[in-house]
Amino acid sequence: MPQPRALRADARQNREKLLKTADAAFRRHGVQASLAEIARTCGIAIGTLYKHFPTREALLQALIHDQVIGLRERAERLAGSDAPREALIEWLQEFGRCSSTYQGLAESILATAEAEDSDLYASVRSMRAAADLLLVEAQKAGAIRTDVSRAEVFAMVCGAGAASHYTTADLDRLLRLAVEGLQPR
């Protein structure tokens, strides 16, 4: 299989400029920020933006890529912990911070959780697998209710991530309160 061609220097610069500008726009206006405005701010045509990132989800994927890798690696390091409940909580807090990076990102993550054709799907699948690993360990240890599914925990964390944009409540506290509801009865 042929290797993808490396980007020319100017194309690489445009891509990096787009990512930096999109990050700033998404932090200010959420994930629905105008892509045309992002391109305009970069001084490039909208077609150039779409050449690099064919969809809004592809742009989001590029922006959260490093966080997703970090979350997966963190889950692998936390797996096998002597304190599986605390390991799960720690990871869920990190995931919650990731999902709240931009207003609307948590909703995008939830919306693409089952959409295999989404540009975000691979990242979401990776995060769900990491959550599942730690959730199962905590459940086997009797630290988390066994009737709770990964999808429910994922939705709970994304909900807290989304809520953090509309309230002054601390995200880590919201997540800790939510996870307390997962304790065995």
TrEMBL record:
Residues 12-71 form the HTH tetR-type domain. GO terms for molecular function: DNA-binding transcription factor activity; transcription cis-regulatory region binding. Keywords: DNA-binding, Transcription, Transcription regulation. Signal peptide: none annotated. It comes from the Bacteria. Pfam families: TetR_C_43, TetR_N. The keyword DNA repair does not apply. PROSITE patterns: HTH_TETR_2 (PS50977). Gene3D superfamilies: Tetracycline Repressor, domain 2. Residues 34-53 bind DNA. Coiled coil: none annotated. The keyword Signal does not apply. This is TetR/AcrR family transcriptional regulator.
